[in-house]
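Morning, I've got a small favour to ask if you have a moment. I'm working through a protein record and want to make sense of it properly. The fold is given in discrete form, as structure tokens running alongside the sequence. Can you walk me through what the tokens say about the fold? Thanks so much in advance, here it is:
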Amino acid sequence: MKINYKKILVLLVVLVLLAACAPKAPATEQVVEEKTAEEASVDENEMIDQGVELTWVDGGGSYHDAVVAAWLDDYQEKTGVEFSYVGWTDNALLVAQVESGAVTYSVFNGDNTWGLDAHSEWLEPIDYSIVSKEGIIEGMATEYRVPNMMYSVLLAYNTDKTGGKVPEGWVDFFDLEKIPGKRCVMDYSVGGIFEIALMADGVPTDELYPLDLERAAAKLDTIKDELIFWGTGAEGEDLIASGEATMCMEYNARAIDAKEVLGKPVELQWNQQMLAAAYLTVPKGTPNKDAAMRLIAYMVSAENNGKLSDHFGVAPINMNSKMDPASAENQPGAHLDQEYIIFDDAWIVANQETVEAFYQEWKAK
């Protein structure tokens, strides 16, 4: 049988034309749920960093536990990032890593003396196309660092050791006759040890800087035999919680942890607290730099920044963040009706080598 291909082709064309002209059935309506900006940001980051390894560095102890509970566990679940941890914030170790070209740290949660322009050769600039400054206290998010919380250094005391007496400030810290016993202080030249000595010696809080080191050392000499030096906040917490020290120069959050979490006879004197912020920095040459920036963005966002305050006695740095009202009383900002100082970061960094040399010489005497 002879096949008429011409007729078949014409028939196919007709069928195609008829199909095109036929009325279409109404499309099934699709409901698209709009996401909030916060939900969208989470979705955008979900699983981008699946399997990426980040090394988080902080001071360890109960602060580290709070960071994990507030942020890192949730972030790992959302993104698939794998964390390793270092519980010691030694700036010199970060510098050594960068200078050796063997950087393992990803995000370094250091104190207020770290992350300034003077440290630029060891740090990556913060990528503000990833990290938002929105809500962060103006001027605190700078080229090489972003704050993640506000804290204070204050006078903590063990009530079992003070004999019912309440130290009213740093004057009483230096008065061994009024309240005998060991004192513990931060073993860090620019951590506040000279500031508390000068306040105890009568220097007004608004006239502390530039520090009169000789005057401060003379005051410290009056209690030097009773001093215990601690290297980490966790060590200081153990000293005051156990009663080995009667009074301690300590981070407010560590003292609160000793009192409320450990249930130890510890109280806080908020008068003459020294205010500072902790900062997030990224070492130069770190692997997975963008992933590190995304972690920082998550931590300082309005949605997440206040979560740390629910686990630890520090204040959020993002003014748009929310926190549990029950924890507000434990925040430094709730006690600014009393005397306080703010560390002069710029002066401290500009004079850090001089202060450190003087401190080491004083300790060795």
Remarks:
- The chain is about 35% helix and 15% strand.
